[in-house]
Amino acid sequence: VMSILLHGDAAFAGQGVVYETFHLSDLPSYTTNGTIHVVVNNQIGFTTDPRMARSSPYPTDVARVVNAPIFHVNADDPEAVMYVCSVAAEWRNTFNKDVVVDLVCYRRRGHNEMDEPMFTQPLMYKQIHKQVPVLKKYADKLIADGTVTLQEFEEEIAKYDRICEEAYTRSKDNKILHIKHWLDSPWPGFFTVDGEPKSMSCPPTGISEELLTHIGNVASSVPVKDFKIHSGLSRILKARSEMTKNRVVDWALAEYMAFGSVLKEGIHVRLSGQDVERGTF
Hints:
By secondary structure, the protein is of the alpha/beta class. It is 43% helix and 9% strand. A four-stranded parallel β-sheet has the order 1-2-4-3. Helix 8 (209-219) packs antiparallel against helix 9 (231-245) and helix 8 (209-219) packs across helix 10. The relative contact order is 0.07. InterPro entries: 2oxoglutarate_DH_E1 (IPR011603), DH_E1 (IPR001017), THDP-binding (IPR029061).
């Protein structure tokens, strides 16, 4: 499995979650053994110029915190893009580290149907309107090289248009949207045919006092014989042992008993986050 993340240039530079994800990228138990980040860098975030959106020259500079290689490639050259993507995949499979592909491109139209970019970026969009679209540019090159004929190119375009038109026509026949067709649910038996949840019943989760006492005693003991532990820790364990004896619990012991009972049923428990290693919570 190879994870691929697709980003916009403004999002890549501006969303804190990107930076946080890079710092998780090589941590034990969190790593995906390398993610390929593809940045569709159309040099404008909604209607914001890069100079108003970030302080670094490239949107991809945030990836430098983990020394990920960053490939800047001209998206008007499909073969260069393909080559760079192959190199990125090879890097990831060889070194199991993150890699970034920065597709330097442009957005031909506005952010959405309501957005007219000429209002806010007139100079940039005058230039964009003069650009030959990438499909035409590449087709002209292939025809000039003799790689494909004009007829072959036109047939491919017609074939693709036909697929889109047929799908569009079919979509008009759909009168009802079945939400369940879009749900990749891990619980196939959870919903009825109409998509409504079935009545839920919860099995009893209580456990015997004997088992709770056992977990409390284990949680207040040291697993290794003659192991010298910190005096502060030994006080905590002693207090926990007393609580178990007196049939009272504090928050930490209650959590211990919950986790312990789940472990006793053979279910793996993984704790992660700040301070869990030393049992603060």
